[in-house]
Amino acid sequence: MIQLKNINKYYEDGFQALKAINLTFEEGKVNVLIGPSGCGKTTTMKLLNRLTDFTDGQILIDEKNIQEINPIELRRQMGYVIQNIGLFPHMTISENVATVPKLLKWDKQKIKEKVDALLTMVNLDPDIYRNRYPSELSGGQQQRIGVIRALAAEPSTILMDEPFSALDPISREQLQDELTRLQKEINKTIIFVTHDMDEAIKIADQIILMKDGQVVQKGSPQELLTNPANEFVKEFIGEERLGNALPPLSEFIIKDFPRISMEQRTEEAIDLMATNQLVEIPVVDGKGEYKGIVNLYQALNNKKATLAELVDDSIEAITRKVDTNFLMKKFHESKLMIFPVQSEQGKLEGIVEREDLYRFLQQFYERKSGGSVWN
Amino acid sequence: MELITDYIAFWQDKYDSILTYTYEHLVISFVVILLSIIVTVPLAIYMTKMKNEKIKNLIFNIANVFQTIPTVALLAIMIPLLGIGFIPSITALFLYALLPLLRNTYTGIKSIDPSIVEAAKGMGFSTFGRLFKIELPAALPYVMSGIRVTTVYIISWTTLAALIGGGGLGDLVLAGIGYNDKHMIFTGTILAIVIALILDLIFGKFEKKFSKA
Fold it and tell me: How far apart are CA A118 and CA A115, in angstroms?
């Protein structure tokens, strides 16, 4: 885990490049630093391998102060991929990939095996590419080498500075997909700098949006799309993308939806459902905790049974943090008309109605296709 | 026909001294080239790291001044300073070789893609490791082309060393002028050209080998 604590950076002319940056990069996650040019995203990344220094604050890597680590050692422990690829033109592909393992004085046989395994991992046949020179490869292939070169010494952290932005759109998409696939195997902590929001949404676990040396908003892509913190974030993400995202689940929760207590009689439940024209009703206990759902038809068929006997407790409630898409899947997989939402303490917060969600979706797509007629 | 038999007779008669002149010529040229590489390449590397533009310009200007002095004049200046013979010839030619080598090496290192340097830095090379394993090898094609061009110049200028008693193929040409012997003039000239061409070819091969990039 990498922590940045209250980092400030001033240049000699007094310009403040970074203002009170507080960030945590979790183990095995893809963290994307994004923002307009000059926002400090690359500077923030370069702090981590000490290619730039900060004025005050503290950076901890696994609880260890970064300033106590020799920069050369530190850089050898971190992968580094840059925008212009920067393969060494006088070295073959395998020599390029083996650079850091050689610096770390790995055993020759081990290096060779590692290089071959990495080439295979990005679908480049080692027998064909091992002894080629960088200039003999296409841009997309070169950056694949750039990426595996950063992976060669098995670093736990990889820094990527706009690695795909100089590539053509097709190679870029391919490499993004490949990175996502690779990440599932290698599970590295990746710090990825980009200015491309689509790229960020596609690959990020955490997006950190910066402006003028400050962090404006950080969160999962979904959080940024559904809950932009201010006008700048909205503008940066763009209407188009915001319009494409579903609203957060919390917007669909009906809090005053009728509910029945476990102690009440079955007839009372039937009456309540009949008056409200419902087929399902959530059941809570004395403390307001969610217990399950009772179905109207089952209740009518077994009027003698108690609610405790009738309740279907196999339906697990979701929390409001769940992605709206996930709930749609849940509805799709079941025949339920309502879905219970509970708070973190287990209390029933409200329910989401299938009908409500579907009505929204219908309007959502109508609006979208209505717009596209003119395009 | 008579021309050719005459010329063959000339070779049979003089081939001993022709070989000596050629040998002298090669020695002078190689010493000059070697010396200038030893001095210039490290200087050029140092200059690429130098922040002070004024000193950098000063060095280039000094090298430039030597280059602008006519070759014959520079050799003549050597006589009051260092006398005649091998040493003054080498000195004059060395001063001449400075600029092309310095410029080429300097531009060579400067023209390395900065992203290569950044990648090397970010991957954890020390300053020295980076210079010897990355920057110099990457600049080698440029440095080689500088050496190649300079070598060809030096071979041709070495002919003038004979003027101040440095020896070499220039002696043959000068003597030829003195005796009005066209065989001597022709042989001296052709040999200088052939040596230059052969070296150019060899260095060209090297250059190609290093510039696979």
Answer: 5
